[in-house]
UniProtKB/TrEMBL annotation:
<feature type="domain" description="AMP-dependent synthetase/ligase">
    <location>
        <begin position="42"/>
        <end position="357"/>
    </location>
</feature>
<dbReference type="InterPro" id="IPR051414">
    <property type="entry name" value="Adenylate-forming_Reductase"/>
</dbReference>
<dbReference type="InterPro" id="IPR036291">
    <property type="entry name" value="NAD(P)-bd_dom_sf"/>
</dbReference>
<protein>
    <submittedName>
        <fullName>Nonribosomal peptide synthetase</fullName>
    </submittedName>
</protein>
<dbReference type="InterPro" id="IPR020845">
    <property type="entry name" value="AMP-binding_CS"/>
</dbReference>
<dbReference type="InterPro" id="IPR013120">
    <property type="entry name" value="FAR_NAD-bd"/>
</dbReference>
<dbReference type="Pfam" id="PF07993">
    <property type="entry name" value="NAD_binding_4"/>
</dbReference>
<dbReference type="Pfam" id="PF23562">
    <property type="entry name" value="AMP-binding_C_3"/>
</dbReference>
<keyword id="KW-0596">Phosphopantetheine</keyword>
<dbReference type="InterPro" id="IPR042099">
    <property type="entry name" value="ANL_N_sf"/>
</dbReference>
<feature type="domain" description="Thioester reductase (TE)">
    <location>
        <begin position="709"/>
        <end position="943"/>
    </location>
</feature>
<keyword id="KW-0597">Phosphoprotein</keyword>
<dbReference type="Pfam" id="PF00501">
    <property type="entry name" value="AMP-binding"/>
</dbReference>
<dbReference type="InterPro" id="IPR000873">
    <property type="entry name" value="AMP-dep_synth/lig_dom"/>
</dbReference>
Length: 1068
């Protein structure tokens, strides 16, 4: 294929209609648009050539034969559609070819906004998709006429051309296909003639139309932001951008036609009819990007915030050449951790009024400076100081080089953005946006909210003495209100808070009425000041907004963090009398109607009825809040995913989906409470900084690995330490253990090695350093110098220290969980993120449903970990590591048996307890349907070390169990034989006998029948786990330990029993 031939971007040699037609005459057969086929058969490409021809077809359909002559030239045509981006941009291009001025308008605008936009631009013709926006545009014919009672206002509304009319050869058109070009204009437009109208966001109440003329269009095209993107990442997913927005036009029209960027989109929905394209979600955006095999994604910060929560999503983002964001600043904490993970950011700063004026990636930028930007040399910027270190960006007109669409400066030609920036302390060409002169709240969605009109309405209420809108970098707005003295309350009292919210709700709704939908304040987002902390005010008596918001910063963060769990708004509408579809549906209708401000049809897609992403967020919050209000439904609440409303997009579908979830949760209260306790523990240790992801750093390669190993004196820990010492690729080992005042650490480690038949001389290795400390302390209880050395040098952590006790509750294991969090914090503070390996247990899957097949190598639902506190605590640690952003892998390890050398197997574990009890009782337990999945510590240790030193990425969870376990009866029969016991009885009978001994147990019984101490554990967990299968597919790709493990041998049982006799646990 011939390379892309760029069109001329300068006047007077080019005009926008010839700029489009260039791709037809060149011809440019290179892809301009691309999407992944739904059937997975590859991608469909629409060439620049085909797009230009489609524009000609559109022109003919919109203005046949250029009818009307000069009187029609320059007529504005509004485009109010819910259609595929390709069609929207084709209509825009078609209007330009036809000599018309396209005016894409958001269908989300209010009727008043639409009337204002049409009237102020003298637009009398609308192109629409009636199936989707008919209810929005059809009433305009009468309402706009009523707004002009003296003169009237004729308005025609037309259906847009069909997909097939515009693209009869979709993805296959060549110059040989039949085609009739549209007639060119008799006179080319002048440089100042309008070519396109876009509109502002409407943050101030009514959106403003902004006209782009020929010379402004080409000045914007010549700015290098998008051309640099086309060079660095030629295939960019732009499908989540609204086609009516300047950002969408930049990426879906200017990018492909001016610079050869391949604009990758979602698969079209309107090829065969009037289907409404689904609203883009973070999940659908990534899915479509992957299908289309893109190099980059262009998005807004709100989507990045969602992706940052998912490890798999972050891994994909790291694989991209660029992740480009615009329309709003990205939260610095999220950006920082993503950059450290390896995400490469590009940034688009601009506006409809002045174009995309920054360089995509600044010169001389270091990774941690991702949020700084450099302005294009073509767009001459004047930095107007507003206060110390803060500057307003003003872009000056430069004849024949750069023109803003609007000039508003009093002294020179140019545009004052009212955007405030700070200058880099050492790189004066870099600037970072700080906010706006007019206090605009820039949401994480990229939408901008001017708070003053809303605040003015709220401040006029007799119940309110101060109101400040907030929501920067968030997906929804909130308002901080100071009640007037006569209505002051204690905002910590939920009843008083709900009462005051109801009291002021009418005035809040009045304020909402003057704002666009995305700026709407919901009842949950009303925050009240405390009597002891009134709003701060200036000497003139006005509210000091910035200082007050800083005063309440923690309260605002807490409100956003807890709103998802809030049941306040849900509780104001009585919950369903029963969680069945017939009762859920009317309850949902009340909520959806109150959120949307109008009646909702239960069978129609909510998003077709005016619902947006913010409505969906709050509806999910209210559903979750209502479910959480019932303790028995707490597990159901935890199952509601973030995209729940998008997945079940009508009230009817939602009602049935909720019924299915509730019906499927018929478990007991005890299980629910245990699951809730685990989630609470996870929440407790996930707070205070454990958010987001961290940099990839340098992956351990097995060459020069510096390892921190916890629990080295235990059974598995000793075997892991032995392998690390012997591995030439490990340069240093920090063996971290708890203190023991009586026995020095080296002596303890020597005893542990000797007990297991390991070579104690290995402990003289110069690369071994012992550390004694307390992991429950933030600094691990180490001297400052030691902690600093560990932090500086370690690149691999193996966390193995955990008490084995099946009688302890989850709460009893909290010190271990706290220690895990401290180790995570240590790892997150390291310059290069280490590989973190956690030796978990199959106990974290102790409630696995055996009918579901093998236990997968992934983090499971919390309910599947309910059982012993030991397994629950391991699960909590797994979840903490999953949320940590580290390169962390949890190994779900099966039962580790005795050492292969001498059979050493700790006598405190459940297997020796069964053996000793069986000797006392005179019979061993038989369980024909079960297996004994015992794996030697040598094999497990090899797996641990292999994972820790693996050169590539490793999954977050792997199962380390015997791939071919022997049957329970064979193994326990061999142990019975070695112990001199011949009889075996069914395990249920055996457990019953132990239980009866437990009811009248004496000290002697406890000594001779130690299974009494763990009988409940044996009844529940062991009976289940001895029947469970575990997938080891992922583990087998990383380590050969499981593939090479030997089948069980009867001599193993002899070694185990012999060891227990040697240490005095069993009688000779």
């Amino acid at each position: 294929m011939a390379p892309f031939i760029a069109p001329p971007l300068t006047l007077p040699s080019s005009r926008v209609h010839t700029f489009i037609d260039h791709h037809r005459t060149a011809p440019n057969l290179t892809p301009a648009f691309s999407w992944g086929n739904e059937d997975g058969t590859g991608v469909t490409n629409v060439s620049h050539f085909e797009f230009a021809r489609a524009a000609h077809r559109a022109a003919e359909l919109l203005r046949p034969g250029r009818c009307g002559g000069a009187q029609v030239d320059g007529t504005t045509v509004a485009i109010v559609v819910a259609t595929d981006a390709l069609i929207a941009q084709t209509l825009l291009a078609g209007c330009i070819i036809a000599g018309l001025v396209p005016f894409p308008i958001s269908p989300r605008n209010t009727e008043a906004a639409l009337i204002h936009l049409l009237s102020s631009t003298r637009t009398h013709r609308i192109l629409a998709t009636r199936a989707s926006v008919g209810p929005i545009v059809d009433p305009l014919v009468h309402s706009i006429a009523a707004a002009h009672p003296s003169s009237g206002y004729p308005l025609s509304i037309e259906e847009i051309p069909t997909f097939r009319q515009l693209y009869p050869f979709l993805g296959r058109e060549t110059p040989d296909d039949a085609f009739t070009p549209y007639p060119p204009p008799s006179t080319p437009p002048s440089p100042k003639d309008p070519v396109l109208i876009l509109h502002s966001s409407g943050s101030t109440g009514l959106p403003k139309p902004i006209t782009t003329c020929e010379r402004v269009f080409f000045a914007f095209c010549a700015l290098e932001n998008v051309s640099e993107m086309a060079r660095r990442a030629p295939r960019a997913y732009t499908g989540m951008m609204p086609a009516f927005h300047a950002f969408g036009v930049l990426m879906q029209f200017v990018g492909p036609l001016a610079h050869g960027l391949v604009s990758c989109l979602a698969p079209p929905s309107t090829i065969n009819g009037d289907c409404v394209p689904p609203a883009p979600t973070p999940q659908s955006t990534l899915a479509n990007a992957k299908k289309t095999k893109v190099d980059a994604i262009v998005t807004v910060p709100a989507f990045i915030l969602e992706w940052a929560k998912n490890e798999e999503d972050v891994e994909y983002l790291v694989s991209l050449k660029l992740l480009v964001f615009g329309s709003a600043p990205l939260a610095s904490k999220v950006g920082d951790v993503l950059v450290r993970r390896g995400v490469k950011f590009g940034q688009v700063y601009g506006a409809t009024e002045f174009g995309a004026v920054n360089k995509l990636v600044p010169t001389g930028l270091e990774e941690h400076e991702w949020s700084w930007m450099e302005m294009s040399e073509r767009a001459r910027v004047r930095w107007e100081a507003t206060e110390k270190g803060i500057f307003e960006a003003q872009f000056l007109t430069t004849e024949d080089v750069y023109y803003p669409a609007i000039e508003n400066l009093p002294d020179l030609k140019g545009y004052a953005t009212r955007d405030l920036f700070e200058r880099h302390p050492t790189k004066p060409h870099l600037y970072r946006i700080m906010g706006r002169l007019d206090d605009v709240v820039v949401l994480g969605t990229g939408e901008k909210v001017v708070p003053n009109p809303m605040e003015d309405i709220l401040n006029a209420s007799p119940h309110i003495t101060g109101a400040i809108l907030f929501g920067r970098e968030r997906i929804q707005t909130g308002v901080l209100i100071q009640p007037s003295s006569a209505y002051a309350i204690d905002p910590r009292d939920d009843k008083q808070l709900a009462s005051f919210r109801n009291l002021v709700w009418d005035v809040v709704e009045h304020a909402n009425a003057v704002a666009p939908n995305f700026a709407r304040v919901y009842k949950e987002m009303i925050l009240l000041t405390e009597l002891a902390r009134p709003m701060l005010r200036s000497p003139k008596g006005s509210v000091a907004k910035k200082a007050t918001l800083e005063l309440y910063a923690q309260d605002i963060d807490a409100l956003y963090n807890t709103v998802e769990a809030s049941s306040s708004a849900a509780g104001e509408i009585a919950s369903p009398v029963a969680w069945t579809a017939v009762n859920i549906q009317p309850w949902l209708l009340e909520h959806t109607s109150s959120l949307c401000g109008k009646a909702i049809n239960p069978t129609i897609d909510l998003f077709e009825q005016g619902f947006d992403s913010l409505n969906a967020t709050f509806l999910r919050h209210r559903i979750v809040g209502a479910l959480r209000a019932s303790p028995s439904l707490l597990p159901v609440a935890q199952q509601i995913p973030r995209n729940f409303i998008y997945t079940y997009a009508s009230v009817q579908q939602l009602a049935h989906a909720l019924q299915e979830l509730v019906v499927g949760n018929a478990g007991g209260a005890k299980r629910d409470a245990a699951a809730a306790a685990m989630e609470a523990m996870i929440a407790k240790y996930s707070s205070a900084g454990l958010v987001g992801f961290l940099p990839e750093g340098q992956m351990p390669t097995g060459e020069g690995a510096v390892v921190l190993l916890t629990g080295s004196t235990g059974g598995l820990g000793s075997h892991v330490l032995e392998l690390l010492i012997a591995n030439p690729g490990v340069s240093k080992i920090f063996a971290f253990n708890r203190p023991n005042d009586k026995i020095p650490i080296l002596q303890r480690q020597e005893a542990a090695f000797a007990e297991r038949g390991l070579d104690t001389t290995a402990l003289k290795s110069e690369k071994l350093v012992f550390l004694v400390g307390d992991s429950t302390k933030a600094d691990l209880g180490l001297p400052a110098e030691q902690y600093a050395e560990v932090k500086r040098s370690v690149n691999t952590i193996i966390h193995n220290a955990w008490t084995l006790d099946f009688n302890k509750t989850l709460l009893s294991f909290e010190p271990h969980i706290a220690g895990t969090r401290n180790l995570i914090d240590l790892a997150r503070a390291m310059r290069a993120t280490p590989r973190f390996v956690f030796t978990s247990s199959v106990g974290s899957a102790q409630a696995w449903d055996l009918s579901s097949g093998p236990v997968p190598e992934e983090i499971l639902d919390v309910r599947l970990a309910v059982g012993t506190g030991y397994g629950e605590s391991k699960y909590v640690a797994e979840r903490l590591l999953l949320a940590s952003g580290l390169r962390a892998t949890s190994l779900r390890i099966g039962q580790v048996s005795g050492s292969a050398t001498n059979g050493a197997w700790s006598a405190t574990e459940w297997v020796p307890a069964i053996v000793k009890s069986s000797i006392t009782l005179g019979h061993f337990p038989a369980d024909p349907g079960a297996v004994a999945p015992f794996l030697s510590p040598e094999a497990v240790a090899k797996a641990v070390v292999d994972v820790a030193l693996y050169k590539e990425e490793v999954p977050a969870m792997m199962n380390v169990v015997h791939p071919r376990p022997a049957s329970w009866n064979v193994v326990f029969g061999a142990m019975a034989k070695a112990a001199g016991v011949e009889d075996m009885i069914p395990i249920d009978q055996w457990l019953k006998e132990v239980g009866e001994r437990a009811e009248r147990a004496t000290a002697v019984d406890l000594e001779l029948v130690p299974a009494i101490k763990i009988v409940d554990f044996l009844k529940s967990t062991i009976k289940r786990l001895s029947r469970a299968e575990f997938s080891t597919v992922r583990a087998d790709t990383v380590t050969s330990a499981l593939r090479e493990v030997q089948d069980w041998d009867e001599r193993d049982a002899e070694k185990w029993v012999g060891y227990w006799r040697n240490v005095g646990f069993l009688d000779e």
